[in-house]
Structures are given as C-alpha cells and as structure tokens.
C-alpha cells in the first residue's frame, strides 16, 4: 500500500525496539516468569491468542516490496525504571493487560511490585536496549 500512496521519492521508516517481555535482565526474566505463573507460558497478543513472533523481519518485508533500498540504524539507549512505572507500562501492553487475570490482577500487581522492588538497585531498574530505525526507499530515489 505504501507504494501506491507514497510520493516517488518518499522514504518509509519503521521503528521498533525491545520490549520488557524480550529484554534479557534478571528483573525482566523474573517478571516474565511471574506473568507466566498467572497466565501460562505463552505470550498473549491483542484481545485473544498468543504471540509466536513475526514470521519474517521488517527488513525482509521491505526488501521484498517496492522499497528495496533499506538502511538500518541502531540507537542504544538506557532507561531507568521505577517499579511503579513498570506496573503502569504493563497495564498498557497486551501481554499482561488486567482483563487477562480473571479477577487476580490486584494480586498480580502486588506480587509484581514486590518482585520489582526486590530487584531494584537504589529504587531503579536498569534497561539497556536498542532502538532500531529502518529507512527504505525505492531504487534510485534521492532521499
């Protein structure tokens, strides 16, 4: 669709990064395990079903489109989370949204807050992540 609606010299940008579900840290592993103890081993996705991961990368999808000239730019970033901020973030995501807990969400949040506080160093949970931006254009474009 982007090929049909984008200007001839347009650039398509796809941005993304790690999530707390996939991030590899002691505190995220413990949090993931706690979520799974309530909801099962599979990662939830959307309003139903589970997330198995993408079948293909965004870069592969772009190179098979009209926008075949793809450049990837990675930006490392460090985030410092307060335990209560992590709980707020979790409420906005599909994999541990409150409705999945069948009335056990308050108990989950109490357990999660305790777990996060136990892992926090000086009240802070560190996340070292990478944010990736893919820029793609049609062959021969000026952008």
Structure, described:
- It is a single chain.
- The chain has 143 residues and is an alpha+beta fold.
- It has 5 helices and 3 strands; from the N terminus they run αβααβααβ.
- The protein has a 3-stranded antiparallel sheet with strand order 1-3-2.
- α2 runs antiparallel to α5 and α4 packs antiparallel against α5.
Summarize the structure.
This protein is an alpha+beta fold. Helix content is 34%, strand content 23%. The chain is elongated and about 55 Å long.
Sketch the major β-sheet: 3 strands, antiparallel
User: How many distinct helices?
Assistant: 5
Fraction in beta strands: 15-25%
Approximately how much helix is present in the residues?
Answer: 25-40%
Tally the beta strands: 3
Mean pLDDT: 86
Gross morphology is elongated
User: Could you spell the SSE succession in H and E letters?
Assistant: HEHHEHHE
Radius of gyration using CA atoms only: 19 Å
Q: SS-based structural class? A: alpha+beta
How are the elements arranged and paired?
Elements: H1 2-5, E1 11-17, H2 26-39, H3 58-63, E2 69-81, H4 83-91, H5 105-119, E3 125-137
Antiparallel strand pairs: 1-3, 2-3
Key attributes of the depicted protein:
143 residues; alpha+beta; 5 helices; 23% strand
């Amino acid at each position: 669709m982007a090929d049909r609606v984008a200007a001839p010299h347009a650039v398509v940008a796809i941005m993304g990064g790690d999530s707390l579900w996939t991030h590899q840290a002691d505190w995220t592993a413990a949090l993931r395990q706690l979520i799974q103890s309530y909801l099962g081993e599979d990662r939830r996705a959307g309003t139903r079903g589970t997330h198995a991961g993408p079948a293909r990368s965004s870069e592969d999808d772009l190179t098979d489109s009209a926008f075949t000239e793809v450049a990837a730019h990675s930006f490392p970033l460090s985030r410092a989370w307060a335990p209560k901020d992590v709980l707020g973030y979790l409420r906005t995501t599909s994999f541990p949204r409150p409705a999945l807990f069948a009335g056990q969400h308050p108990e989950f949040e109490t357990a999660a807050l305790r777990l996060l506080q136990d892992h926090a160093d000086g009240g802070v949970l560190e996340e070292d992540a990478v944010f990736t931006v893919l820029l793609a254009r049609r062959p021969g474009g000026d952008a």
